[in-house]
């Protein structure tokens, strides 16, 4: 027997520690019951000793189970002790909590006492009403969950990246530009149009609603292309409006447009059209910019872009420009101007989240009733989703931030510089003599071709 008891196990040590805790409360001992497994273990040891056999060693699994049971009993006893302390200090008539809440609770109870008439006679209101309230909360939560899966709520559509479909050209700096050609070929066209797309768009935008058969009928060559980093075009780290005009010029020469061509700009794409008038005016036949087209037959909503921070604008012009925009659009322009890095947070939560959002929210415009009706048409929504999917193909946020910053930065020129102006000879004797002998006239500077701004 002495050999068996000679070396204590961890269970014996634990039992010896909890036999008498020495903790007293109000003169009474707070006892902690001896774990059950200790009694069983002692009986096993005694039985084995009586038979003259040595005790078997405990497995690790048995030790873990016994340890968990012991801790469970300790936590249970601790919880009971905490409950008694709370009841004795906070649930008595003299406690601060009861004194403060007794009056208001009595008033509420007296006003709601009439509800007890709806309870059966054998039901205690103190026990019945908490159960009823809890069941009501469960029912309300279940109804709320069911309404979220109502068939009337439109499902969120995932962004799908389609296989590559663009025609590529190699630019002099080694970048690839993706473009799309509609209508007749450039070398046989009566009129050639090049259309840079707007923000969150791609070469697939083209002229929304215009059929290719109509372009062929009038001998029009329409060329659209992806801006750097959009669609299938390679990014350009140091791009500006000058490089944008040069890309447009190289594209025209590559596809066989050797004569002058028209530039079609809408939304933020008008920014690149203005750049073409500034940097390659000798190749531009004219420019088309659109304001709002609200006709459902046209299937388009277009608006020309100007720099909202243009220094040559008066305070009245700036105020009239900003007052029509919704708060979200104002915020985006402000962040692009002051804190462009914060744009990544909004872009990743919207069009770069991998899911399609509502079109009217992504446009960030205040729309009329006819415009909203256009957005609800399935054909426009399908066209919009396909264009957005192509725009975010590369999942690269940097080109979008660059485009946004370019809109509100210094363009390198003002729209007033594109106006036709007279440039006469300077003052002095030599200019006066040239004017006398050659009858020189004042020259016209600026873009001399037509600029059409449509607003419907």
Total DSSP E strands: 11
Main sheet specs? 7 strands, mixed
Percentage of β-strand residues: 5-15%
Major sheet strand order: 3-4-6-5-7-8-11
Query: What is the CATH C level class of the largest domain, in words?
Result: Alpha Beta
Specify the overall morphology.
elongated
The CATH topology of the largest domain turns out to be Rossmann fold
Output mean pLDDT. Answer: 77
Radius of gyration: 40 Å
Structural class: alpha/beta
- Helix residue percentage: 40-55%
Treating each run of at least 4 consecutive H or I residues as one helix, how many helices?
A: 17
Elements, N to C (H/E): HHEEHHHHEEEHEHEHEHHHHHHHEHEE
Specify the CATH homologous superfamily of the largest domain.
Alpha/Beta hydrolase fold, catalytic domain
List low-pLDDT spans.
Answer: 1-5, 34-52, 292-302
* N- and C-termini, Cα separation: 107 Å
Q: Give me the CATH architecture of the largest domain, please.
A: 3-Layer(aba) Sandwich
Q: Domain count, please report it.
A: 4
Pfam families: Abhydrolase_1 (PF00561)
InterPro entries: AB_hydrolase_1, AB_hydrolase_fold
GO molecular function, one term: hydrolase activity
Organism: Nyssa sinensis
């Amino acid at each position: 027997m002495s050999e068996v008891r000679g070396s204590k196990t961890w269970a014996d040590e634990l039992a010896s520690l909890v036999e008498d805790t020495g903790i007293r409360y109000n003169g009474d001992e707070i006892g902690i019951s001896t774990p059950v497994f200790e009694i069983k273990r002692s009986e096993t040891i005694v039985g084995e000793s009586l038979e003259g056999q040595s005790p078997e060693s405990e497995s690790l699994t048995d030790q873990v189970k016994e340890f968990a049971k012991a801790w469970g009993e300790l936590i249970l006893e601790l919880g009971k002790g905490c409950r008694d302390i709370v009841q004795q200090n906070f649930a008595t008539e003299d406690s601060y909590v009861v004194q403060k809440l007794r009056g208001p609770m009595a008033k509420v109870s007296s006003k709601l006492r009439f509800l007890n008439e709806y309870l059966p006679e054998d039901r205690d209101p103190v026990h019945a009403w908490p159960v009823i309230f809890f069941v009501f909360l469960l029912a309300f939560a279940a109804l709320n969950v069911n309404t979220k899966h109502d068939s009337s709520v439109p499902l969120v559509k995932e962004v799908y990246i389609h296989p590559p479909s663009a025609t590529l050209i190699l630019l002099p700096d080694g970048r690839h530009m993706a473009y799309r050609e509609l209508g007749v070929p450039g070398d046989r066209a009566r009129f050639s149009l090049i259309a840079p797309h707007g923000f969150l768009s791609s070469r697939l935008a083209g002229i929304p609603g215009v059929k290719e058969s109509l372009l062929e009928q009038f001998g029009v060559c329409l060329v659209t292309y992806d801006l750097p980093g959009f669609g299938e075009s390679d990014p350009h780290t140091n791009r500006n409006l000058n490089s944008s005009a040069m890309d447009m010029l190289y594209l025209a020469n590559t596809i066989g447009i050797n004569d002058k061509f028209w530039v079609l700009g809408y939304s933020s794409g008008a920014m690149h059209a203005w750049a073409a008038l500034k940097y390659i005016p000798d190749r531009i036949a004219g420019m088309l910019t659109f304001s709002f087209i609200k006709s459902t037959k046209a299937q388009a909503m277009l608006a020309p872009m100007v720099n909202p921070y243009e220094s040559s604008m008066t305070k009245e012009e700036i105020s009239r420009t900003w007052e029509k925009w919704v708060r979200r659009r104002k915020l985006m322009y402000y962040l692009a101007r002051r804190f462009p890095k914060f744009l990544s947070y909004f872009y990743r939560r919207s069009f770069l989240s991998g899911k399609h959002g509502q079109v009217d929210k992504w446009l960030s415009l205040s729309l009329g009733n006819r415009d909203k009706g256009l957005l609800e048409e399935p054909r426009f929504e399908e066209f919009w989703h396909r264009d957005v999917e192509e725009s975010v193909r590369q999942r690269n946020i940097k080109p979008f931030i660059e485009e946004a910053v370019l809109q509100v930065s210094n363009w390198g020129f003002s729209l007033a510089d594109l106006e036709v102006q007279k440039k006469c000879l300077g003052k002095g004797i030599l200019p006066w003599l040239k004017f006398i002998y050659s009858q020189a006239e004042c020259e016209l500077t600026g873009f001399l071709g037509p600029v059409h701004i449509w607003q419907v």
